């Protein structure tokens, strides 16, 4: 008679055994975006197409509404990764932060705003802004700094040649333009296209086309998080790169259909037209690498606006090794 032997596992050993057998474990990442914007289409594609899941990540997206609150969430541990303007990493660094934010994956590579006029301007030139009332963005933020940079490049002194308004909160700028006396406003999509469709404004120029390549919106995290979770950051970057490639290969309408759940109050045709504008001016980065030329362009824009607190070298606040590894593999 054969003697049957049973494997007896004590509770602690059993837990270890079951953990080793579980190959479907995911890593949770708290992701904070500075605002909800069509400009961030590849990020929503990465979520909706399951690219994060393919990399073993469970991404919890929260909108933190503003650069200051987004960076506070990141630096305090309320978020693991932040999607925000790369200028914020320079502001934090200049405050002698011990554990400052590192830019590791670029999402957008141009300004995302458009110049919208209240009245039709079929023959618009930048000189038309002279002596006008211009409703701008928050002082020290990328939209405002790029706006001022473009105006100066076109011979307009924003503080002397026009009436520049900067006292309206970001979320209230569209409403203030409609109800106020401003002749021009700087708007993101899809608001710019919605205004044009409804006859409340007319798109006359693109700040993205005028300003050139700049690391406008970037994924960043604390250096300590990279040190402790490098594999997760690499996996995150892989998912973003997949999304960037998918956006490049697919039509604006197909992209709009995928990200429509994030913009339930906007018609599909407006989403499609807005995405097409961004694709035409190469606003969506095709890969996550933030190169030195773009970084220097950012600093030039900040310096021109009088907002550069320190001349921080590219290698100090930008990690390209992760993105390069992702692309090469």
Can you offer a commentary on this structure?
- The protein is of the alpha/beta class.
- The protein folds into two domains: 27-110 and 214-328, Periplasmic binding protein-like II (D-Maltodextrin-Binding Protein, domain 2, 3-Layer(aba) Sandwich); 113-211, Periplasmic binding protein-like II (D-Maltodextrin-Binding Protein, domain 2), CATH 3.40.190.
- The protein has 16 helices and ten strands.
- It has a five-stranded mixed sheet with strand order 2-1-3-10-4, with helices on both faces.
- Helix 6 (142-153) links the parallel strand 6 (133-135) and strand 7.
- Helix 11 crosses helix 16 (321-328).
- The longest helix has 20 residues, at 230-249.
- The termini are far apart.
- 45% of the residues are buried.
- Residues 1-22 have low confidence and may be disordered.
């Amino acid at each position: 008679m054969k003697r049957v032997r049973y494997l007896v596992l004590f509770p602690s050993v059993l837990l270890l055994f079951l953990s080793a057998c579980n190959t479907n474990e995911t890593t949770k990442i708290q992701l904070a975006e500075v605002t909800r914007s069509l400009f961030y289409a590849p990020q929503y594609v990465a979520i909706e197409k399951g690219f994060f899941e393919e990399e073993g990540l469970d991404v919890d997206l929260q909108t933190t509404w503003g650069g200051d609150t987004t960076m506070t969430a990141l630096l305090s541990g309320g978020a693991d990764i932040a999607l925000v303007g790369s200028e914020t990493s320079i502001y934090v660094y200049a405050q002698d932060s011990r554990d400052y934010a590192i830019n590791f994956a670029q999402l957008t590579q141009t300004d995302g705003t458009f110049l919208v006029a209240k009245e039709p301007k079929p023959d618009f030139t930048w000189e038309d802004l002279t002596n006008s009332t211009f409703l701008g963005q928050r002082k020290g933020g990328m939209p405002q700094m790029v706006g001022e940079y473009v105006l100066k490049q076109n011979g307009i002194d924003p503080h002397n040649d026009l009436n520049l308004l900067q006292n309206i909160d970001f979320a209230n700028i569209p409403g203030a333009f409609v109800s106020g006396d401003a002749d021009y406003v700087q708007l993101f999509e899809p608001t710019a296209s919605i205004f044009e469709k409804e006859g409340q404004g007319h798109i006359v120029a693109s700040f993205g086309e005028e300003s050139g390549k700049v690391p406008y919106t970037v994924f960043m995290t604390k250096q300590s998080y990279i040190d402790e979770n490098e594999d997760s950051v690499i996996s995150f970057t892989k998912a973003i790169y997949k999304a960037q490639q998918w956006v490049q290969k697919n039509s604006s309408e197909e992209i709009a259909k995928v990200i429509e759940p994030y913009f339930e109050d906007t018609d599909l045709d407006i989403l499609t037209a807005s995405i097409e504008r961004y694709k035409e001016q190469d606003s969506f980065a095709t890969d996550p690498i933030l190169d030195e030329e773009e970084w220097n362009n950012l600093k030039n824009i900040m310096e021109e606006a009088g907002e550069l607190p320190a001349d921080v070298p590219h290698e100090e606040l930008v990690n390209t090794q992760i993105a390069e590894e992702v692309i090469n593999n």
